[in-house]
Amino acid sequence: MLVKFHKRRRRRVQAVAVLGAATMAGLAVGAYAWMRPGSEGFAREVGMEASPPGRDDAPVGSRTILLGDGSTAEPLTVPSQLVLVEVSSSRVQVRLDSGAARFRVAHSPQRAFVVLAGAVQVTALGTDFSVERADARARVSVAEGQVRVSWAGDSAVLAASEERWFPPLATPVPPAPPAPSAAPPAPPAPPAPSAAPKATEPSPPAPPAPAHPRRSWRAMAQEGRYAEAYLRLKEVEAKGGSDAVRDEPHDLFLAADSARLSGHPEQAIPYLDKLLDKYAGDARAPLAAFTLGRILLSLGRPVDAAPAFHRARKLSADGALDEDALAREAESWFKAGNRVRARSCVEEYLKLYPNGARREALERGW
To answer: How far is CA 258 from CA 49, 140, 181, 183, 253, in A?
Structure first.
């Protein structure tokens, strides 16, 4: 990862972290930062020194962007592009141009923390949340605290463990049938014949109107209508058909979300297990393992949850989930009654993250 500092005439602070693909040997991360002179304290890369002017070879140990108020932004996917638009005493504004990022926001009543993702604006209220950009829409997931999400003409508040896509997709309204064209006036009827007319045969019944196709569970899930998506998903799985869950990472993860966020966490486990067993190299695998651990822990299965959190760390090539996964692994072993393994995880956490957000809870115990 490289960092460059350039003098600019404008007083606005801008920092851009761009994660791109690299050589066949692995992924290299390119990061670029533009700051006015003396502004390095507002935003910097964690664990690195700024490159001297004219040098492009300064090593970087982490891709987490640390803001001066203690908040952080971590790109979660490759490629991802973040732009730090504004840093002031009253406002921090970050723009997510592509990819996904996680934001840990330091609580400050005097300072607003805003993430822009296309037409979607996410305002944090002292929280830990993620935003994933997908063209004109954004997926917002809240780990702790609350966020307010705004889009054209509307807004919503998400709390911890909630996740939705914004803007919600509008339910399509079937078009009204075209008005019948005015028929020309009928010609005058001929005079009735003297013989009795034959009885006319009844006209055949009109064919039934075509039924509108039922909405896909995927569309419902992407709108955040997880309860409806889950019901439709179970119906499709019982009957089979083209709308069934496809054997690929995105569909498996979306099906797991539909079950988990509709109040059926146990039903999400098979989808996450399948994703991890068949697609461990996929970018979603670390988050799938972490989500599986959270579900198992919430279901009172800490012995099963601990290995899932450990797996999330092993699969996470960029380390974005490492701190939280290690803390959760320690919590799982503690709740399982295995104090030896819990203490080992706590000691590792304190060594790796001496100022980590979970330090106090780990030292206190559950």
So the answer is: 43, 15, 46, 52, 9
